[in-house]
Amino acid sequence: MSEAARTMGSKRPDMPVWELSVVEAFDVTPRMRRVVFEGELGAMAYRPGQALVLAMPLPEGGTGRRDYTIRELDRSLGRLSIDFVLHGETPAPSWARRAKAGDTLLARGPRGRTVFNPEADWHLFCGDETCLPAILHILETVDSGTKIHAFIEVEGPEDHQPVPPAFASSVTWVHRDGQQSGPSSLLLERLTAFTLPEGRGHAYLIGETGNVRAQRHHLVARGLSKEQISSEGYWRPGRIGGHDHVDD
Questions:
Q1: N or C end of the chain: smaller count of CB under 10 Å?
Q2: For the chain, where are the alpha helices, taking DSSP H only?
Q3: Are residues 139 and 237 both part of a single domain?
Q4: In 3-state terms, what secondary structure has residue 175?
Q5: Can you list the alpha helix ranges (DSSP code H) found in 42-194?
């Protein structure tokens, strides 16, 4: 392990540090770019939906912390993939656009509480494109008989991604159609019209913090306990980096 890795890890000894090297990078959709990394990942303890804290290079020098969900992980090959939403010229999307084989990053983790609850009778996923890596990876790893309902907000049809065939009819794509991404009622309106299934469910709410909070309040008002809701604010307008635990 390099001196940089030891220094990074010393700040959070409970979070392992991984040295990642880019294998390739390509666009999945016009607004989503995948970077495939390799490293010594055989010992990585991970649950689909969790993220790594990347030491992202900054234009002014140094690095800044950026949380990004693991999209795919193959321990046998020592490879993992991370998808970057291409939203503006902030450091992480800019780095992903330029990423090429041999580029390196340090990462800590994995961490995150938005993971699949196998005890639930049904599962409700709701979020914008920033949640796609987590939701799709979870759907790729659960039993095909799992009762799934998902509402995913994207700009338009060009931003759809393949869904496991067993859940193709369970995913509803909600289009902004030119509306600015960020705080809106698009997904809340879909939740309001959604009939909660019988049994004890679990909701996974991910995306812009204000939207996630409004969706959480709505589901609590309809009878879900707070323990039945995993909610994370991945971003907020005007903030670069960081995320919010939405527990209120």
A1: C
A2: 3-11, 91-98, 132-141, 186-193, 209-221
A3: yes
A4: strand
A5: 91-98, 132-141, 186-193
In contact, 104 and 22? CB cutoff 8 Å: yes
The Cα 53–Cα 44 span in angstroms is 14
Interstrand relation of 122-128 and 148-154 (parallel, antiparallel or unpaired)? parallel
Does 154 lie in the same domain as 105? Answer: no
- CATH code (residue 167): 3.40.50.80
Rounded to whole angstroms, the Cα distance separating 112 from 230 reads: 10
Return the amino acid letter for 73: L
* Predicted structure pTM score: 0.90
Contacts of residue 118, defined as CB under 8 A and 6 or more positions apart, other chains included, come to none
In tens, the pLDDT along 109-164 reads 999 989 999 999 999 999 999 999 999 999 999 999 999 999 999 999 999 999 99
Smallest CA-to-CA distance from 130 within 225, 242, 45, 15 is with 242
